[in-house]
Structure formats: C-alpha cells, structure tokens
Amino acid sequence: MIFADLIAPLDVQRDVIERQGDLNVDVTALTDDSRLVRPGSVFVAVAGGRADGHAFLSQAVDAGASALVVEKPWPFGVEVGPGVGRVVPPVPMVRVKDSRRALGLLASRFHRDPSSRLSMIGVTGTNGKTTVTYLCKAVLEASGRRVGLIGTVAYHIGAERLHASHTTPGAVELQALLARMVDAGLDSAVMEVSSHALALDRAAGCEFDVAVFTNLTQDHLDFHADLDDYFDAKLRLFTSLTPAGNKPNPKRAIVNMDDARGERVCAASRVPVWTYAIRAQADIRAEDVRLSLAGTRFTAVTPAGRFPVEGRLVGEHNVYNMLAAVGVGLHERLSTDTIRAGIRSVENVPGRFERVEAGQNFTVVVDYAHTEDALVRLLAAAHALKTGRIITVFGCGGDRDRGKRPKMGRAAAQRSDLVILTSDNPRTEDPLAILREVEAGLREALDPSKPNRVRYEVIADRRMDIEAAIREAKPGDMVLIAGKGHEDYQIIGDKRVHFDDREVAREAIRKLR
Questions:
Q1: Do 271 and 253 meet the contact criterion of CB atoms below 8 Å apart?
Q2: Is 161 helix (H, G, I), strand (E, B) or coil?
Q3: How many CB atoms lie within 10 A of CB 64?
Q4: Model confidence over 445-503: pLDDT tens digits?
Q5: Residues 6+ apart with CB under 8 A from 436
Q6: Which residue, 124, 221, 277, 347, is the most exposed by fewest CB within 10 angstroms?
C-alpha cells in the first residue's frame, strides 16, 4: 500500500494538519510501538499514559520506518519559530489532530476496512457484556451465520480460540483480528467494547451495525475521573453509530431501560432504538419469569410478538442478557424459533455463574463478579435459588478503584450467611490492607441486634479461603467464589502466577471425599 492511500480516511475526516515529504512511499506494516518498527513500517506516535510515542520518533526512523504519523510538530519538544528555519523530518510525515484516533482509522484502512465486510455487534456496559456476546454469537450461529467473537475471555475466529490480551484489544490488533475473520470466511463479529477502548479510540475505524447497552454501575474509577466520565465513554459507542456509512443495512441501538441511564442512551442514539426491560415499559420485555438452578424460563414480549424463551443460564441478571440477545436476533431478521434455539444452546459462559461439579451435595459457583453491582446480582440470583446457606468468598483487586471496596463489603453482608474475605490480584498493594477496606464496609452493614448475624473471616490466601468455604459447606448450601471467574492467574507484585478458582474448588471437594 502507498502511504498517500493509507491516509485517505484522515483526509475524509479532515484530520490532517500538515504534510511533509513525498507521501508516495510503500507501506508494509503499521504500528504505534517503536520496538516493532521494521523497514517499511508506518510509525504512529501516540501519547500514552506511561510513555509518549513522540519521544521515540528517532528510534523508529533508525529502525527503518518509511513514514511517520504524529500529533506534535517534528522534532518532539522543539518549537520552530520565525527565522529559525524549518526542521525537516528524514522520512515522509503527516501531522494530525489526534494520533490516537488516527491509529484506528489507519489500521482499518491498512486491513482493507474489515468491519465494512462484517455484520458488527458491539456490546458495552459494566456487567453482562461477556454473556451477551456469547448469547448473540449462539443466536446468529443458529441461523447458519459464521461468527467471530472478541471479548474478555478469549478471541474466537471460527474454530480458533486466541488468548485475550484485553477486553477490547488495541486498534492495530483489533483490525488485524477483524481482517482474519474476513479471510476465514466469517460474516459477523460480536464484540465487547470496554470503556477504556472507547475512551482511547481503540474502536475507531469500526463501523458497527448494532450497539447494546447493558447497564452502568461503579467500576474503573482508577481510570475514569468519575462515574459521569465513565458513562460518557460508554456513550461514545452510540453517538458514533450513524445511519450513513459503508453498509446498506439499517442500524440499531438496543438499550436496557431498567438501568437508570437507559433514557440518556436512547436520547443520545443517532439510530433507531429498541429498549428492553423486566420492570420498565420497553419494546422487548420478559413476563412470567421462572428461575431455577436448572435454568431460566420467561415469555418474551417483542415487536415480533410473544414467544417462550428457555435458557440454561441462571439468575434474573441473565434474563436481561437473553433479552438483549433477543433484540439483536430480531434486528438481524432471524425467526423467533432460531433465536430460541440459539439461547437454549448456551450451556455455560466461562466464569459467569459457572458451576463446579465434583460429586458434592452442595452447590459451588465461580463468577467474575468484581463490582458492587455484579456482586449484588450474583447474590440475588443465589438467594432466589438457595436451599441452604450462602457462603461468599471474594476480595478486591490491588492498584484499582479503591472506592468500590467498602461497597462490595456491604453488598456481601446483605445476603450471605458466611463471608470469607480473600486476596484477589493484590498487585503491588498489601493484601491485608485491601481487605481492611473491604471489611470496613462489611462491618458497617452488620446489624448487631439480629440474632443470626452474618459471620465473616479474613484470610489473605485465596487457596486457603476456598478450601475453608468448601469444608464449611453442608448439604444444600451454596458456595459463591467471586471476583476472578474465567481468570486462571493471580497477580502478586509484578508476577503472574497460575491460579484457577475452578481447579482449586475441585481439588478441595476431592479432599473432602
């Protein structure tokens, strides 16, 4: 590809401020990491949280970069004033308004705009993204579609399953994944779109057909200034969804109206909206909801009429996730029978109310719940299904949003009979210091006047905690191991060590036997 052709999307968006040199040079690669520059690469200098790519322009040129895309004048940190003379970069260079956004547009162009050749479903929200994407993938596949998936647990390209580096990968990796899906003959992609990705323009260059909003509660306030800033990042998925584009088919937003911010998402959407809810008035609703450990049943009331839905996923929160998938299926013009079959086919989503079975006479559930709202939803689901006590094992991550720690402690006290506070990716923090902050909220929620007060223990060793919970469990009890879900590691200091809640729980159950 010629550099002048590569930057064509930037010209369309009027993002180019300055051009220098002959832009008719061959381009063989694109990167924002100076360490990955090879002869023929275009290096895009992005100012990041830890390093500024503009500081590595010389290294990129020395490594063989054929062209540069920058946001700041060349050379970095030098002002060129009257009489000083013009400083000329040694290779062709384009200066743009926003190099981070330009990276996504360039990556899309470099990979021949793969999102224009896929039906793109983007899902954002605090909780439920992963489950909604798995359900949507199953619904589309039930119709014969070939579907890729990008999300927290893994990236799926046909039968190939890749390790997920981020919920939503960086712009260059994302466009490369979408291009691989096109090359593999896939026709659709379902994608979790995180607030980080939206704030950092990782999805720039993606043309979505459907955007789903699940809910919004406190999370990631170590990254976002406050809850409004967090919401504004999520909202970008809907404000960027426009009727005009490279695709002829109509576009739609699908919004949870039982969430307090649902109305604002609807108001901001530039395309038609379908709402969904259990309690509020909505286009897609669930009636006659029946929950059990065997699964979920309800009647879906939709623009296509009423029909029964049966799913194997457990809990009221999964009714919302199924309603979102119903909306996606109907927008994609699938039959109600196809939608029902797709939802029914999903037996389990890794680390989302995932049951651990090893012959025990009590229930063990591993779940990714790592926010106050997610823990409340998990406990509500457990409470609706319980036949005995609820034993909750959880902790909070280090070097992350500290404000949610006491809130999660209070949430755990609401519906648990025994709470065991444990370590969860402490990173560079003292695990016991983290747990003291969680414990403060838990103690606030305890009512000393009640004869059956919630008991709690603090053990900053996750393996010991899980084993203690398993030993404590009696027939009919439910053990909830929350926070890590599908993750198979612990981050302690700067080291990542193997640790899988599901494996540890199975080992603990076998020891009992």
A1: yes
A2: strand
A3: 15
A4: 887 776 667 899 999 999 999 999 999 999 999 999 999 999 999 999 989 999 999 99
A5: none
A6: 347
Residues 348 and 412 sit within 8 Å (Cβ to Cβ): no
pLDDT digits (tens, 9 = 90+) for 78-119: 444 554 555 678 899 999 999 999 999 999 999 999 999 999
Tokens of 364: 């063990």
The β-bridge relationship of strands 295-302 and 284-292 is: antiparallel
In a 3-state reduction of DSSP, which class is residue 32? Answer: coil
- Label the pairing between strands 252-256 and 210-213: parallel
The C-alpha atoms of residue 102 and residue 477 are separated, in whole angstroms, by 54
Alpha-carbon distances, residue 199 vs 35, 230, 348, 385 (angstroms)? 24, 9, 31, 38
Residue 77 has pLDDT above 50, yes or no: no
CA–CA separation, 453 and 417 (whole Å): 8
Over its C-alpha atoms, the chain yields an Rg (Å, rounded) of 25
Tell me what pLDDT residue 76 has.
Answer: 52
CA atoms within 13 Å, Cβ hemisphere of 436: 5
- For the chain, give the mean pLDDT: 92
Query: Which candidate, 96, 23, 100, places its Cα nearest to that of 66?
Result: 23
pLDDT digits (tens, 9 = 90+) for 225-273: 688 888 888 999 999 998 877 888 899 999 999 999 999 999 999 999 9
| Phi, psi torsion values for 67, nearest 5 degrees | -160, 160
Half-sphere exposure of 304 (CA within 13 A, CB side): 19
Segment 21-46, tens digit of pLDDT: 999 999 999 999 999 999 999 999 99
Q: Are 306 and 300 in contact (CB under 8 A)?
A: yes
Q: Both tokens of residue 174?
A: 């994302």
In terms of DSSP H, where are the helices of 143-194?
A: 171-183
